[in-house]
Amino acid sequence: MPELPEVETIARDVRPDLVGRQILRVIVLKPDILRRTRRPEFVRRLEGTRVESVGRRAKHVVVTLDSGDRLVVQPGMTGSLTVVNGTAPPDAYTTIVFALDSGKRLLHRDVRRIGAVYLHAPAAWEAYDRNLGPEPLERTFTPARLAEALRNGRLAVKKAVMDQHRLAGVGNIYANEALWSAGIDPSREARGITAAEARRLHGAIVRILRRAIASRGTTVRDYRTGTGERGGYQRRLAVYGRAGRSCRRCRWRIVLTHVIDARATYFCPGCQR
Ligand SMILES: [Zn+2]
Question: Would you say the pTM of this structure is higher than 0.85?
């Protein structure tokens, strides 16, 4: 599932073609991708609006419109956004076509349709935003803020890091990578993490997310950038997907378990104890 670096890459890729452009027409081909807003209202509120900015919040692309509404795209497993030239007919997986005044079209595609598209009015957007934890790449995210996010609850530190109410944007791949980098056992209770460990983990999260953005994200299976390409960070993963192979730091074998949160947890029993 695309996490912060993948969604940031998609937003950056489509941004130059969207900012300042007017949306002339909206064609919803698969209405089941829409949440909370029905097709006629979705089309009516979008047609004629102009794009003010394209950003990201947590694992979602956020398109801010001059009407004050925000188009929020959650890529899910196979959702993608691309801008295309020309008038070739949309393929079977295209869910929404946005025709722009530049003559280009923004396409939302989703093969499995686990993703979702929202159109939030200002009040709904504020509620949505408030419900999410801090953005790890913003200045205000400090080791102390991470320690605070880990303070409550007996849940495993890996689950706490992935909890979007505590910290935004980190999912299974980057939680595994950051905990390895910080030398922390992913099954440990979040509230037992010391201040020194929180500092290490904070540094690891920020560093790894930045590097992954520089590599245009991680493609394990479905993720594609906003220009339709594979990311590059999968070649740099230290533990994720490397079960049975030797740790790059201590040479123990990387272990795979599903005990912590039913997700794939990869860790090194040698240097994460
Ligand atoms: Zn190791």
Answer: yes
